[in-house]
Design brief:
Layout (H helix, E strand, L loop, with lengths): L2 H7 L16 H10 L16 E2 L2 E2 L3 H11 L6 H16 L4 H13 L1 H10 L2 H11 L3 H10 L1 H8 L1
Antiparallel strand pairs: 1-2
Helix pairs in contact: 1-3, 2-3, 3-5, 4-7, 6-7
The structure holds zinc ion.
Amino acid sequence: MEPWKIELSRVDWSAYECACGERGHLGGDLQRIIEARSLGEWGGASLDGHVEDQSMVADVAVPAVGVMMAALQEDLAVPTRSEFMINLWRLVDGEADESVTEEIHEQIRDGIWLIYREATNGDTETAMEILECVERDPARLEHFRTAVARRLSKRTR
Ligand SMILES: [Zn+2]
């Protein structure tokens, strides 16, 4: 069994408020999005309006980030990986209680090499935005920024 599935099953999803006002559904939605091999298999599931809404971060984002980080180790379909990267970026930069923000940043720092791998092999721009919010080693971040600079300029051309 993949670690993300065990991490997902560890969470009592109904204990956390979702940005949509409901509770309990996000665990199942995350599972569907992670297991999907294409966007068509999401069955209408989405993170938008649930982990955050108009940059207000919901409590459920904390366990959701744990599951997303565990899932990023796996060979995810392209739309799933990009949904997770975009949402992680929104969450590190969103409005929330300081404790919620700190917990989210902490969980991403725990898996920081997954984000660095994305910076060197995937969505460089989004990965660097996330790292800018969470990385505590400015010298390392600067070194990587220089190393991936060509990938960034390629994207904007
Ligand atoms: Zn919801």
